[in-house]
């Protein structure tokens, strides 16, 4: 599902001053393409991703998913859109420490789609295998390396087969070997499965797999 953004503005209030972070941002994001959002620290990469992910509200502007104007929706409708169409991967993994790998991966899927636990587990095993981490299915996050935790974070994001995949600094805490594995996975997954991939990264690691680089 394509995304279209028109005249997007977002500011924060800081010490009674208005800090304009996103100013008149316009863009179209298409299926099977990877978009890399770059810019120095504080330029607004995370802010832009959070607006596209419908996690924060813009000051003004329009966001369409396909033909649907999602920026005007209620919080509840946005939540539903996000659950059904979007997978989000965070820099610091955001795994639940009290759940093992497989339960972390299936949690949102079971809750949102009323799948049986058995069906969800079979799906989770497939996705964990794609990320070469199925052997850790019963491990807890504290027993995993950063690279392994991030692969679980990706598995959790893609188990619903979302059409839009958002990755906020997905490799910033990882070594070169783990970074390469994740870059190759995202490259393949988005390009071969018709996904819109939107990645923020402050280094050049994703430059080669990006179809377009957006400098903030
Ligand atoms: N909730 C907030 N309230 C006030 N200011 C904020 C808030 N969130 C972000 N900012 C400010 O907005 C600017 C952009 O922040 P953002 O996190 O989007 O940048 P970034 O490019 O992702 O930075 P980094 O690479 O360091 O993560 C920064 O100056 C930040 O201090």
From TrEMBL:
SUPFAM superfamilies given in the database record: P-loop containing nucleoside triphosphate hydrolases
Keyword rRNA-binding: no
Alphabetical list of InterPro entries matching this protein: ABC_transporter-like_ATP-bd, ABC_transporter-like_CS, P-loop_NTPase
Keyword 4Fe-4S: no
Name of the protein in its database record: ABC transporter ATP-binding protein
The family this protein is said to belong to: Belongs to the ABC transporter superfamily.
Keywords: ATP-binding, Nucleotide-binding
All residue ranges annotated as the ABC transporter domain in the record: 3-216
A Pfam family hit: ABC_tran
Gene3D superfamilies, alphabetized: P-loop containing nucleotide triphosphate hydrolases
GO molecular function, one term: ATP binding
Superkingdom per UniProt: Bacteria
